[in-house]
Amino acid sequence: MAKSILLLILHKTDSRRAAVFCFILYSTFSFSSGAQTMRLPLAAVYSRLHAYSSNYADAFSFQGNQAALAAVKNVSAGVYGERKFMLAELSQYNACVALPTSSGNYGFAASYAGSPLYNESQVGIAYGRRMGKLDAGVQFNYYSLKIAGYGSAGSVNFEAGAIAKVTDRLNTGFHIYNPAGSRLGENGEERLPAIYSAGFGYDLSSRFFLCAQVEKMEDQPVSLNTCMLYCFAGKLFARAGISTGTTSFFFGTGFLWNDLRVDVTAGLHQQLGFSAGLMLIYNAPPK
Predict the structure, then answer these.
(1) How crowded is the C-beta side of 175, counted as CA atoms within 13 Å?
(2) Model's pTM, two decimal places?
């Protein structure tokens, strides 16, 4: 199937786009196992690793670890859009909402990546709760894959995580995605990979945050993701990091305007070039 998709892409795109799509297909299709996965934005670590911070939890944090929902104190909602390698066909969009309640916190997430030719999407609902010094969370997803000329397929999967508060400044935890090996298609010939990760975050101060995560996707090499954030005068901040799995760098800057946070992000892949993104997050004021 991957060969047929590649021929279709080569027919409908120019040489640069074809080269990029070849890379994406190589990264997405595991020819030995037929596995596929939702492609995260190149700068995904930019938002996900906040899961391990005591000071910077927001609407996107639980996408890195559902246990991070327990740290959200006010309603938070965000949207993120990215044009990967500056190609419209590789546009990606994410939206998240975190809703705290007296019985635990809930999260809602939706993602879309691709174009009418080939796209992946996922919607999910999550729940997180604090249990002393341990936070735990779980999320149930519906994943869908659509390919022009081949139709579509979907499957249900789940992910879960836990975060331990070691000290007031240090958090550590782990996360699993699709450990049951959810399958796609009528005959179940293709399977979504399982992904395991463990990470930590250290708030050196109210302005400076460091974090790192080791991630292992089934049939793929181990990836090390690192990130640091520095906040200037409470309103301006900058972030930067590295992801060895995609051999890419990411960086960004943003500012707070009342209850709205605006981030401009960029990612750099050594062979495929730049990706640009924009993130908007609304954090409701405390009641």
Answers:
(1) 30
(2) 0.83
